[in-house]
Design goal:
There is one protein chain. The protein is an alpha+beta fold and about 190 residues long. It has two domains: about 60 residues; about 120 residues, Immunoglobulin-like, CATH 2.60.40. The chain is built from two helices and 14 strands; from the N terminus they run ββαβββββββαβββββ. Strands 3, 4, 6, 7 and 14 form a five-stranded antiparallel sheet that branches. The longest helix is centred in the first third of the chain and has 30 residues. It is rod-shaped, with a radius of gyration of 37 Å.
C-alpha cells in the first residue's frame, strides 16, 4: 500500500480543526462502533484519575517531609584574629572558630588551635564578626595545657559577649613558649 502523507486541516485563522467524518474513514476505529467497550474506557479513565490522585498525595507527603527536615548551616573554619603579641603555637595549630546552626535555633561554637606568648587575664583574640552576635552570655570553660614537672596544668577561658576570648586563669605561670590550647565546642 502506498504511503499517504497526513496533513492537518486549517481553518481561515490558521488553527487546526477536525472535520466530521464517518468512523469507517478513521484508521484504528472498528468498522462497527458498537465494538467499542465504553465501560472499559470509563474504567481506564477512572484508574488514571486514581493514579493521579495517589501521585498528588505522594508529592504532598514528600513536600511536607522536605519542609520539616532539619536545616544545618556551617561557617566552616575561620581564623581567629589574634591580639597583639599573641602568636599561634604553630602553623598547624592556628586558632580557628566555626559556627554550626541547626534549624535556625541551636548553635554550636567550636574553637580549636593553640597559642603561645600569653598570660592570665589576657584577651588572646576575638571571634570572627559573623559569630559574635550568637554569644548571648559569657561562657567559661576549662582546658588542659602544657605539663610542668610532670604535672598537668589547666586554664580557665571565657568567651565574652563581645566575641573576645580571654584567658581568665592558669594553674601555672605560663612561659612565652608553652603550648596553650583553646579547643572546645560550646552549645550557645
Amino acid at each position: 500500500m502506498a504511503e499517504i502523507n497526513a496533513r492537518q486541516l486549517l481553518d481561515a485563522k490558521g488553527e487546526v480543526y477536525f472535520p466530521f467524518t464517518h468512523a469507517t474513514c478513521v484508521e484504528g476505529i472498528p468498522d462497527d462502533i458498537s465494538d467499542f467497550d465504553i465501560g472499559t474506557v470509563k474504567e481506564d479513565v477512572s484508574n488514571v484519575q486514581t493514579d493521579v490522585s495517589t501521585l498528588q498525595s505522594q508529592i504532598s507527603n514528600l513536600q511536607n517531609a522536605i519542609a520539616n527536615m532539619p536545616t544545618v548551616s556551617d561557617t566552616g573554619w575561620i581564623n581567629i584574629p589574634l591580639a597583639t603579641n599573641v602568636q599561634a603555637y604553630s602553623t598547624t595549630q592556628t586558632p580557628k572558630a566555626r559556627m554550626v546552626t541547626i534549624n535556625n535555633g541551636v548553635k554550636f561554637l567550636s574553637v580549636r588551635g593553640a597559642v603561645k606568648n600569653v598570660t592570665a587575664g589576657q584577651t588572646i583574640g576575638t571571634l570572627p564578626s559573623t559569630m559574635i552576635s550568637s554569644v548571648a552570655v559569657a561562657i567559661d570553660y576549662a582546658q588542659s595545657m602544657h605539663a610542668t614537672n610532670g604535672f598537668a596544668n589547666f586554664n580557665r577561658w571565657t568567651v565574652l559577649t563581645t566575641g573576645e576570648i580571654r584567658l581568665q586563669y592558669s594553674t601555672t605561670t605560663i612561659t612565652s613558649t608553652q603550648w596553650v590550647p583553646i579547643d572546645i565546642t560550646l552549645m550557645l
